[in-house]
Design brief:
It is found in: Membrane. With 228 residues, this protein is mainly alpha-helical. It contains 7 helices and no strands.
């Protein structure tokens, strides 16, 4: 028990300044939880979400263009399950990250006047992801393999997902800035983190652009059906 108390006390110690003094309101444990919150959101929206979108957007067309029914069924099963699993992980990571940041800040975290746009956008995304998951479940239930076109509820799901993804891409650097503002004097987020983030976002944008051009060309050649 004494070991646990020592660890707990160490985690709750304040962060020393460079000159050796302490900043009394800086909690290392809360700092760690905040960093984990950011890391989980980064994994969810920087890596998993674009992968899930790409799977649904581009593998779906491949599945529907196959004349072999058995291969088409396998491809359809593959893209749908991958999309569902990836966004399921996004959902889980969002729930954990939300719980962590709420533990750190309580309801004060959602004070937009104090904390800026990051918290407002984040709360909207957290609520909207429930709506998006429900839409996905509804679409799966209503799906008909022999349909000739994409129904309107699918389009809502598609565009709502894209909007959420863009909001998250914008919200992550806002979160980094908010975190930086709460650090003691002399501490800051390493500039390379922002640089890596920008490079990755640009790479993802180019990747989607390339795949979108390829998809357009395949559709123009009649290799993809209307429901892709």
């Amino acid at each position: 028990m004494s070991v646990w108390n020592s660890v707990r006390d160490a985690m709750n110690e304040t962060m020393p300044y460079e000159d050796g003094t302490d900043e009394g309101d800086y909690d290392m444990n809360n700092d760690r939880l905040t960093v984990i919150h950011g890391a989980l959101m980064g994994i969810a929206w920087v890596f998993l979400a674009p992968a899930a979108i790409a799977v649904a957007r581009y593998l779906k067309g491949v599945a529907h263009s196959n004349d072999d029914v058995s291969k088409m069924s396998l491809a359809t099963w593959t893209w749908f399950r991958l999309h569902y699993i990836l966004f399921g992980l996004v959902f889980i990571l969002n729930m954990i990250a939300f719980g962590l940041i709420y533990k750190v800040t309580d309801s004060d975290h959602f004070d937009v006047n104090q904390n800026g746009a990051h918290v407002g956008i984040g709360l909207f995304i957290w609520i909207a992801i429930f709506v998006q998951m429900a839409l996905g479940a509804l679409i799966s239930y209503l799906y008909k393999p022999n349909r000739a076109s994409t129904p309107w509820w699918d389009h809502i799901h598609h565009w709502f997902g894209r909007i959420l993804f863009i909001l998250c891409i914008v919200n992550i650097p806002l979160g980094i800035n908010l975190y930086s503002q709460g650090l003691p004097e002399g501490m800051t987020v390493h500039p390379s983190l922002k640089a890596i983030y920008i490079v990755w976002v640009v790479a993802v944008a180019f990747g989607f652009g390339f795949m979108e051009i390829r998809r357009h060309n395949l559709k123009a050649r009649g290799l993809l059906n209307k429901d892709s």
